[in-house]
């Protein structure tokens, strides 16, 4: 029966781990960058250190066990097996909450926030703050299946999430997301207002209006972020949205290449004071890289850009209550006035004191507080 929900546990084969160590040992390294900063990309010395740690000290089996502490499942929707964490709360009034990651993230981003959301009493909250948490892996990411045909863009994924929540028996739910998760969450709120009680996002895919006078301080901050992104930080996106297949050969074959491709963004997009290890442990960084390497999803994950950018899609109109958290080191900080043409019911807006693009991963306590606060208004 295609609607069956099947238990799932992460279990990477020993052959994959042996092959990984072999490839890391045989890496053919480029020469070092010619500058003393990250302006030419991820520094050789650090990527060598990370890969050395990955090969010789990182304990995947221990990390795998930690990831498996939450109940996981797969179910086939629209011909594709979808993997998801489903952490149910013991609190009878818990609100179902579907949380969606983006690129280069994964379900690893949410490992530090699931328990506080599910069991708030044990983590400084009230029983009325409780959620049943559902964390799916995007199609072509992690342990979800890879689409075998085109058409799996943001809106189709959102429609799939609505079907998933219905299959789980949730007639009313909230949705939260960052990066591509923000786009999926936005589309879900637009497509399923009869069941989606509210959406909360940290990145808004909205363009500034043209020719409307001097920008405000909020708009100047966002415009500066947009200029930096376009000028210096968007090459990965152009490649993934135009030629994901070409990119995939190198990333699928080289663990050091896959690590550098991902980890540069954990430097560029986090509130890390210049170095990712100021905010994440090496194990945490590599847990996320492993969900791309071990599943061979460099190419299939990049195709989401090809599917979702350009004339293929427009931003939908969302009428359900919307909450926005503005983290200061977000790639482009949201601007309320830019969002209002598409978000007709913004009821919550928070300027966060610290944090960047990977909000739940970087600042789990702030993230949990913010999610509790917004969804308390729509329960």
Automatic annotation (TrEMBL):
InterPro entries: AB_hydrolase_fold (IPR029058), Epox_hydrolase-like (IPR000639), Epoxide_hydro_N (IPR010497), Epoxide_hydrolase (IPR016292)
Keywords: Aromatic hydrocarbons catabolism, Hydrolase
Taxonomy, superkingdom: Bacteria
Keyword Transport appears in the UniProt entry: no
Gene3D superfamilies recorded: alpha/beta hydrolase
Coiled coil regions, renumbered to chain: none
Epoxide hydrolase N-terminal domain location: 5-110
Family designation: Belongs to the peptidase S33 family.
UniProt-listed PANTHER family: EPOXIDE HYDROLASE (PTHR21661:SF35), EPOXIDE HYDROLASE 1-RELATED (PTHR21661)
Protein name listed in UniProt: Hydrolase
């Amino acid at each position: 029966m295609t609607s069956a929900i099947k238990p799932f546990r992460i279990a990477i084969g020993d052959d994959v781990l042996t092959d990984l160590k072999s490839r890391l040992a045989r890496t053919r390294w480029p020469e070092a960058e010619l500058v003393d900063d990250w302006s030419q990309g991820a520094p050789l010395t650090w990527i060598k250190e990370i890969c050395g740690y990955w090969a010789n000290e990182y304990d995947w089996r221990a990390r795998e066990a930690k990831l498996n502490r939450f109940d996981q499942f797969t179910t086939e929707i629209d011909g594709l097996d979808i993997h998801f964490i489903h952490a149910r709360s013991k609190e009878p009034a818990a609100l179902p909450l579907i949380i969606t990651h983006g690129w280069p993230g994964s379900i690893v981003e949410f490992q530090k926030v699931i328990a506080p959301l599910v069991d708030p009493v044990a983590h400084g909250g009230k029983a009325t703050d409780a959620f049943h948490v559902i964390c799916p892996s995007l199609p072509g990411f992690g342990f979800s299946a890879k689409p075998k045909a085109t058409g799996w863009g943001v809106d189709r994924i959102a429609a799939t999430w609505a079907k998933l929540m219905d299959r789980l028996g949730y007639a009313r739910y909230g949705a939260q997301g960052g990066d591509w998760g923000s786009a999926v969450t936005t589309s879900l709120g637009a497509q399923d207002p009869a069941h989606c009680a509210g959406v909360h996002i940290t990145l808004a895919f909205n363009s500034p209006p043209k020719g409307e006078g001097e920008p405000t301080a909020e708009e100047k901050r966002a415009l500066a972020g947009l200029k930096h992104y376009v000028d210096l930080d968007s090459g990965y996106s152009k490649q993934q949205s135009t030629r994901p297949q070409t990119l995939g050969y190198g990333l699928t074959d080289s663990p050091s290449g896959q690590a550098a491709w991902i980890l540069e963004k954990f430097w560029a997009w986090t509130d890390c004071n210049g170095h990712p290890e100021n905010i994440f442990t090496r194990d945490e960084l590599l847990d996320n890289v492993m969900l791309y390497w071990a599943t061979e999803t460099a190419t299939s994950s990049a195709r989401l850009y090809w599917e979702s950018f350009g004339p293929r899609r427009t931003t939908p109109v969302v009428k359900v209550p919307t909450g926005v958290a503005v983290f200061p080191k977000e790639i482009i900080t949201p601007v309320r006035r830019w969002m209002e043409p598409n978000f007709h019911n913004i009821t919550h807006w928070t300027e966060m004191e610290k944090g960047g693009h990977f909000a739940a991963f970087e600042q789990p306590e702030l993230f949990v507080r913010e999610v509790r606060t917004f969804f308390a208004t729509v329960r």
